[in-house]
């Protein structure tokens, strides 16, 4: 069992930055492919970013490409999402997710929430315009 805990959310103004972190106790995240998803009120959960367990592959939604960066900190056993130039449409609850895909994670695997086994409880990000 992998328990994921997100942190770093908050209320910021448009144009600001936030850094989300996903941590776990017990199992090491280095064994898992990791993703970030978000869900705004009244909308489906959507893919934001993912990083393979090797760290060699990263994938981003078109809406965050160039503004968000996903990274792994194996020493701290965390996966982080650096969010810059935030927009009001980034407002959502952000979730981290983990799964061990066979081989190197592909973009097709990364983007679908149903492929992930473990989920955190989410952290709220609110961007005021």
Give a structural overview.
By secondary structure, the protein is mainly beta. Helices cover 3% and strands 47% of the residues. The chain has one helix at 107-110, and strands spanning 3-7, 10-13, 18-25, 33-39, 46-51, 58-60, 68-73, 78-83, 92-99, 118-119, 123-128. The strands form two sheets. Strands 2, 4, 5, 6, 9, 10 and 11 form a seven-stranded mixed sheet that branches. It has a four-stranded antiparallel sheet with strand order 1-3-8-7, with no helix packed on it. Strand 7 (68-73) and strand 8 form a beta hairpin. The longest helix is centred in the C-terminal third of the chain and has 4 residues, at 107-110. The protein is globular, with a radius of gyration of 14 Å. It starts with a strand and ends with a strand.
Key traits:
129 residues; mainly beta; seven-stranded mixed β-sheet
């Amino acid at each position: 069992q992998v328990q994921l805990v997100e942190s770093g959310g908050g209320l910021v103004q448009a144009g600001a930055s936030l850094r989300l972190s996903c941590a776990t106790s017990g199992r090491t995240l280095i064994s898992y492919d990791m993703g970030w998803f978000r869900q705004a009120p009244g909308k489906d959960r959507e893919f934001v970013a993912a990083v393979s367990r090797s760290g060699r592959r990263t994938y981003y939604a078109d809406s965050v490409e160039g503004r968000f960066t996903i990274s792994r900190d194996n020493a701290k056993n965390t996966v982080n999402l650096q969010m810059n130039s935030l927009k009001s449409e980034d407002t959502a609850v952000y979730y981290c997710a983990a799964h061990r895909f066979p081989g190197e994670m592909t973009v097709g695997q990364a983007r679908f929430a149903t492929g992930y086994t473990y989920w955190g409880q989410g952290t709220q990000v609110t961007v005021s315009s």
